[in-house]
Amino acid sequence: MLRKPGGEGDVSDTARLRTVVRECFRSLITGCSPEQHLPNIPISTRLLNAFLGPGASGHQAPEQVFKQLLDKATETGGPADGDDAFLSDFRRLVAEMCSTSGWTALGWQSAVADLQLRLQNRLRIVRLHREVPELAAERVVAPIFVATLPRTATNFTRGVIGRSTHHRAPLLWEMTYTDLLLPERQRRERIKSVTQLYKQIGQLAPKYRKAVGLEAEEPDDCAHLLPHGPSHLMRADMPGYRKWLAKRDFRPDYIRLKQALQVLQHGRPPARWVLESPAHLDNLEAIREAFPDAKILWVHRDPITVLGSLCSLTEISQAMHLRGPDREAIGQNWMEMLAASIERARRARVALPREAIVDVPYPQLAADPRGALPLLYERLGSRWTQNDSGNLEKVLAGPGIARSHEQELSRYGLTSADVEAAFGDYPRIITGLWLR
């Protein structure tokens, strides 16, 4: 018999990860702040064995790890059938993780727990589509895909566009536990579980948490619903995985994203989805194939203003997951990946209908948000209201996303000339895209 949605087993994996984080946190407290310790977190065999079982070590056998993940996911998510391609690709990610050396105890366990939740969530979505066939008939109408470089316009996307009366952005907890409409008690249990998980992770990496948010009841990067992408490289550099991503067909992932949205909107008031992620820049054609009436909002920003912040954020994350992150590798890898994303998007847009993409330069949003956002709504086919004006004023009055972690490019072995050469004429065309 299939486990009913909202059962106690659905939150067991986040509870286990919270226990692991709490133990690691206590073991690190010696009078200094947690982030001072992170680069030198030792491997803890005891905690690894507690999470992965007897015989586990820092270098795992991929099939053993995959089987453990799958067995656990089927207990709470549903049977492991209905999407063999997903499982095959997921096995590839597990193998790449297992071939990566230098994991800390906390890093390995948190990475595996994230995969556990992702796998469990996908099995749940497949099961729900099997049990509720009418889900496939749910129309996802004219969604807005926000495609940006990382660290760009998230305040406006999540604080204004995603909160409009007729818009809806998926919340972090919904992307962790995608399900049909739940009784209030079970819904609050899931929200509490996700809140506690990220709160405790934030105790170990407060700068990372402060920089990216990760609030259970707030909109977040929809990469949480995409099984693969550069987000996995924030934890560790996996060269084989990077090369695999560069050649991968992402069209099936956007079909899976559509299936998740069909679950989340079933039985709820209709709204226009707002889906934000840097991953979208690599996949404009896949988006329009899965969502033929989608509007793609491309927020343009000079890469030189983004790269230092992104490298700093990656260093913070990798310091929690790995022993001794390679800062120069972080800089070189992200510069190459972002340049490739921009070039891929520029090529893809040529094949798309002109009206499919709405361009807006970030400098215009930052300099004149009260003037730019109503114009942007008009281009998106949405209506700017007093409610939107109120949300914008809250964003402008708030502290925004912290940028105290930003670093000079030189810390990551890069110069302004390197970045300018990598991105060619792209920074120069941004000023010609202002909305009027």
What are its keywords?
436 residues; P-loop_NTPase; Stf3_sulfotransferase; globular; 5-stranded parallel β-sheet; transferase activity; mainly alpha; Sulfotransferase; transferase
| Structural shape | globular
Mean pLDDT: 85
What is the CA–CA distance across the termini?
58 Å
Side by side, the strands of the main sheet go 2-3-1-4-5
CATH level 1 name = Alpha Beta
Low-confidence stretches: 1-8, 24-58, 401-406
Annotated CATH topology: Rossmann fold
CATH homolog superfamily: P-loop containing nucleotide triphosphate hydrolases
> What is the annotated CATH architecture?
3-Layer(aba) Sandwich
How does the helix and strand content classify structurally? mainly alpha
Alpha-carbon Rg, integer = 21 Å
Task: Provide the domain count.
Answer: 1
Overall helicity = 55-70%
Please tally the helical runs, counting DSSP H or I stretches of 4 or more residues. 20
Strand residues, percent: 5-15%
- Main sheet characteristics: 5 strands, parallel
Q: Say how many strands there are.
A: 5
Explain the layout of strands and helices.
Blueprint: H1 12-28, H2 34-37, H3 45-52, H4 62-76, H5 84-98, H6 105-131, E1 144-148, H7 154-159, E2 167-168, H8 172-176, H9 184-204, H10 206-212, H11 239-247, H12 251-265, E3 272-276, H13 284-290, E4 295-300, H14 304-321, H15 327-350, E5 357-361, H16 362-367, H17 369-380, H18 386-397, H19 416-423, H20 426-429
Parallel strand pairs: 1-3, 1-4, 2-3, 4-5
Helix pairs in contact: 1-6, 1-9, 3-6, 4-5, 4-6, 6-12, 9-10, 12-13, 14-15
